[in-house]
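Support request, please re-run this one:
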Amino acid sequence: MNKAIQQSRILFLDTQPLVRLLQMHPDYYSSVSEVLDLAYEKNLTILVSSVTLFEISKQAFSAHEGVSRIRPTWSAVT
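Re-run finished. Output below.
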């Protein structure tokens, strides 16, 4: 595991890693899952863009599946 991730308090995830995770892609699933497990264990703040939320929602809608409990929380960065 990357040492920078282990020492972080905030983690930004781009669209593709989450899409690959949801697709259970054999080349990426274990890596992305490992990072998210570490983030959960260390109680990291995970940030995603509104584009990521849109893409995931769009794919779920297209597949006629619900997107459970996507609630973005907004905070001002100063």
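Helices lie at 3-6, 15-22, 29-41, 50-62. The chain has one domain: 3-62.
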